[in-house]
């Protein structure tokens, strides 16, 4: 559902709400405050028209109409353009959902554009209104609170991802065939999270430079940058852990394959030994069979058959051939 909310803040306090965006800006300038225009799930045509009516930089307006894959900061004239990507983690599905908040801020105007109603900026408004001393610093203070809320929201996401990584580490040394797929899927989610968090320290450093004229507000960027750097480092650590998990899993798989190949080799060696023994005894048994079959042909002209030594000679020949083959096979370690 499309929501367009325009409020006027003077001296850190909300003084008028539910105004037309252009009217809210006029009232804010007339009273020395700032206007906060919030566009939720609005059509591109409506967003573009409001941006044009508010007189915002055309490039910043065009940037707010397209989606971005990373958090970023750009400056267009007097307008600051910031993209933030708050994240949520679905532990059951092990997926990270990154949404997008586009922010255009100038001295007396801040416009927040969200493409989904899943992002609730009510908490940001409450924090701004609960600290009027901070809100007196205008749109930069609102931008800082936005960063604080987004960075704080990453903690639950990181805790959920780390819990699943711990479970993966416990599964690595088991035989669960679903481990590699789980690692790949979680690695993809962590990469998406890295796109949202890795640029944040640089974004906050550039914002610090852009607001260097306001010492109080400028100081808070440094503390926010430190927390953003901590989040970015944790995400990079998760990527390294998952990379190592894949390496370990591949090593374990190769180790198991090597063990199976070693067992198979042992079986094959034993089978070869058995084949050698069977073949050797078959050859030894074939020698007397050959001699007996030779003399069993019943040819008429076989002189040995008429001699008294013919039968002993045949037996001796059988024994000699068998003994010779046995010696040969024994020497070659076939028996």
TrEMBL record:
Keywords, in A-Z order: Cell membrane, Membrane, Transmembrane, Transmembrane helix, Transport
What compartments host this protein? Answer: Cell membrane
Q: Which Pfam families match?
A: CorA
Q: Which SUPFAM superfamilies match?
A: CorA soluble domain-like, Magnesium transport protein CorA, transmembrane region
The UniProt transmembrane annotation reads 278-297, 309-329
Topological type in the membrane: Multi-pass membrane protein
Main localisation: membrane
The record's InterPro entries line, in alphabetical order, gives: CorA_cytoplasmic_dom, CorA_TM1_TM2, MgTranspt_CorA/ZnTranspt_ZntB
The entry's family comment says: Belongs to the CorA metal ion transporter (MIT) (TC 1.A.35) family.
Q: What protein is this chain from? A: Magnesium and cobalt transport protein CorA
What organism, scientifically named, is this protein from? Microbacterium thalli
